[in-house]
Amino acid sequence: MSEKIRIHLADDHQVLIDGMLAVLKTNSKFEVVGHSLNGLELVDKIQSNEADILIMDINMPHKDGIEVLKELSQTKHSCRVIILSSYDDIKLIKEVLKLGANGYLSKQCAGESIVEAIESVATGKDYFSQNIQEKIVSSFSGNGTEPSTNEVSINTNLTDRELEILKLISLEYSGKEIGEELSISLNTVETHRKNLIKKLNVKIQLV
Fold first, then answer.
1. Cα distance between the two ends of the chain
2. How far apart are CA 99 and CA 87, in angstroms?
């Protein structure tokens, strides 16, 4: 990765791109190397501007974010992807994660979380805004119930490793597959699972 974090923005609303540009230009660690207003333009530009991070909406004309992720997965492009969307449906979240997205932010949280998300994803970690984390957690309950307001804050109480494991469990990885993906033992995976149960107060089973 270059000295500065090189960022490409993709959204079909110019006003949102302008807003993100204004925020990101105030940070000396970031360099916005391009932006796109549709998925077709994005696929063409992202393969030539050497961006480290792609921040992308799902709902775009010509090619949507799902199609873009599928195309990028078939290339050698190594940029990491943060989805910035107004949609928070758990099926959609899981689909983009399976396709290789490294972060997911609701547009309503973008202003307060975008810098943290970029810095986290740039170091190889996953990042989810708190309401997206809650969607992932609530999917384990089987009834879509949101975590109660009395529960601990997900953002401040889950470690990076626990977030990785939470993501993989939500994608229905087996304990063995999680261990292989993260290069840890099955016993370590089980320990993290038990810690997640205690912290989140939900039933979490390994496949």
1. 35
2. 17
| CA 138 – CA 202 distance, rounded (Å) | 8
Instruction: Check if the beta carbon of residue 105 is closer than 8 Å to that of residue 84.
Output: yes
pTM of the model: 0.84
Place of tokens 């997206």: 132
CA dihedral sign, ordered 186, 137, 56, 72: positive
Task: Give exposure, 111-123, as e/b (b: 16+ Cβ within 10 Å).
Answer: eebbbebbbbbbe
pLDDT in tens, 94-147: 999 999 999 999 888 777 789 999 999 999 999 998 888 888 888 876 544 444
